[in-house]
Fold this protein.
Amino acid sequence: MITRFLTDVRVKFNPFSPRSKSARLFLSLMPPSARSNGMKIESQMLPRHSKEPAFLGLKFKDGKEMKLDLDKMRITEVMEEVDRHSRQLARKEELLGN
């Protein structure tokens, strides 16, 4: 997963719910140096009996924001969405010569 174009990651999930697996896996895919490289990562744990759906909010360097409902998405679908926009940003960066 291409994470170098992410600036802000917000995750809200119930760690005890099986439907929150995508949220837990997404957080595990973040590189250890993400925070030191300037990425803001916020995670909110919901109570055990919470019925609120898992949520992922992303912000990219170009200002685009993504809001994903993780209860309905598998981790592969989440990675595809993030990588799709990251590849577009990488292409733009390459064409500009930065």
